[in-house]
Amino acid sequence: MPALRRLLLLVAVTVGVLALCTGTASAHANLTASNPTDGTSVSPSPTTVSATFSERVSIGVGGLTVRNTSGARVEQGSSSLDSAGTTVSVALRPALPDGTYVATYRVLSADGHPVSGSFLFGVGSGPVDASAASLSGTSGNRIWEIAAALARFVMYTSALLAAGLAFFLAFLHDRDEDRWRLIGWTRIATITALFGAAGIVIAQAALLSGRGLAAITDGRVLGDAVESRLGWSLAALVMGLIAVHLSTDIPNLTASQALALYGGLATAGSFAIWGHSTELSPIWLNTAADIIHAAAAAVWFGGIVGLVMVLRRRTDQPVASTAMIVRRFSTVAAISVGFLTAAGVALAWNATGSWSALVSTTYGRLLLAKVVVVAVIIGIAGYNRSWLVPALVQGEEERAPAESDSTTPVATLAFTEEQRATNWSLLRRAVTIEACALVVVMGITSVLVNVTPARTVIAAADRVVNQTRAVDTGTVNLVVVPAKAGENTLHIQYADAAGRPIDVANTLTIGFTLPSADLATITRQTTKAGPGHFIYTGPELSIVGTWTITLVARTGDFSEQRTEFQIPIH
């Protein structure tokens, strides 16, 4: 009971840390542009509102909704997705009154995570009321994000524990009577993992629809929640857990080992179907590394927990067979740690891409925290394998013949009874600490899987060029999205010295020149979208290189304001 209380305390602390660390969903798809631009006013009233994301998304029961400051919805019809799958748009009611409006988006990113947020825009010449952001309907997202992180924690910990315990029972245990205690915990873990999976579906539905707990009563919402990679992932998880559960029911050792092995692999493989690894290239490397990583973690984690139970159960029993279990687990754990480390390095490097990303992004810092905890666990495991396990095995090998020969004095043994007891006590404590630390690792992983990989963050920053130049009237800001060869969107905003939008002209001429290719200047005109705000979308930046973009604003009948930008296109 004291050990159980300590374990529950550890779980409670881990849950608290999860609640503090979990924030807004941060998947692969991030909002890169909106029309109207966030925080700007437009005149006349726009006919549509759109949101553009960094990668393909799907909408299902989500999409775009637009509300006025009274909370009334002003969009008409359903949201639609463009052919590229990156821009969501919805039509607005005609001739909206002047005022502030809040647009809320809820989409599903390609990696299976829900993404939501909002932006403000105004109609007319008045300023945008920032307090309208409270009407977005996303205030409850944090609660559901925490719920999703907790559900992932329960599912990951329980599923890996069930798979690892089944492997321990089938391959490492001596099939003594205490196996029934381990079988009971294996079955409990499989059921708990299924409850965690159900929690993920509920949280996913709530985040996708914005309807909270009421979403579970709508079959269409639940269908959208699992009609993605998540559905396939949960199907593989359920099949794997069924096999794991059956492995504890079959008396035939060979059949039990087959079910435990392949059920564990299916359980580990389910984690590779849904999440960041499905969108990072090369996919084959990520998928293989993810499966190996999860399978090795299951063998290590489940084996440690199984070993803790065996050591605590057999404290006052003969320990010759226990030493054999310890030796077997030590060998398997060493192999598992090797695979775990190799796969982890491959996944970590593919998700970060550079050393600087480890310290400059949220994903990198969480990953470093996980690595530090794992390094401590490996240090403890190394101590166990290099000193405690050999000492225990040697002690039991010496003790066995000594017990059969009553003439052998105890004093001649290399290890006295007191030393043997001390070694066993040290091993019990060490593996208990390992098991508890691995629970912490599971908690960090539950948050980490919903944070944008560092490589994606850096790449997204590289894809958006944002430059500001000083002009006579104040400043002009140019944003180019996605800054890749092909179609790009230019957002241009003129502001005064205080940073407030300022009208400089009703029309703006944009010149595109690529000096390295000796191209003639391509000239385009765009009209005002709001006070000092201009938007242009076109295919002019179709060649890789550093382009010169010249903005010419007609400030009077006989005057103009000319500004040049050097924009790299990849």
Mean pLDDT: 82
Overall form: elongated
Low-confidence stretches: 402-414
Reading side by side through the largest sheet, how are the strands ordered? Answer: 9-10-11-14-13-12-15-16
The chain-level structural class is: alpha+beta
Q: In angstroms, what is the radius of gyration?
A: 30 Å
Distance between the termini: 62 Å
Number of domains: 3
**What helical percentage do the residues reach?**
40-55%
| Strand percent estimate | 15-25%
Q: Mind describing the biggest β-sheet? A: 8 strands, antiparallel
**What is the N-to-C succession of helices and strands?**
HEEEEEEEEHHHHHHHHHHHEEEEEEEE
Number of helical runs?
12
DSSP strand tally: 16
Give the secondary structure arrangement, pairings included.
Elements: H1 2-21, E1 31-35, E2 40-42, E3 48-53, E4 57-68, E5 75-81, E6 87-92, E7 99-109, E8 114-123, H2 141-172, H3 179-209, H4 219-226, H5 229-247, H6 253-270, H7 283-313, H8 320-352, H9 355-360, H10 362-404, H11 417-448, H12 454-463, E9 465-471, E10 474-481, E11 488-495, E12 507-513, E13 522-530, E14 533-538, E15 545-556, E16 559-569
Parallel strand pairs: 2-8
Antiparallel strand pairs: 1-3, 3-6, 4-7, 5-6, 7-8, 9-10, 10-11, 11-14, 12-13, 12-15, 13-14, 15-16
Helix pairs in contact: 1-11, 2-3, 2-5, 2-6, 2-7, 2-11, 3-4, 3-5, 5-6, 6-7, 7-8, 7-11, 8-10, 10-11
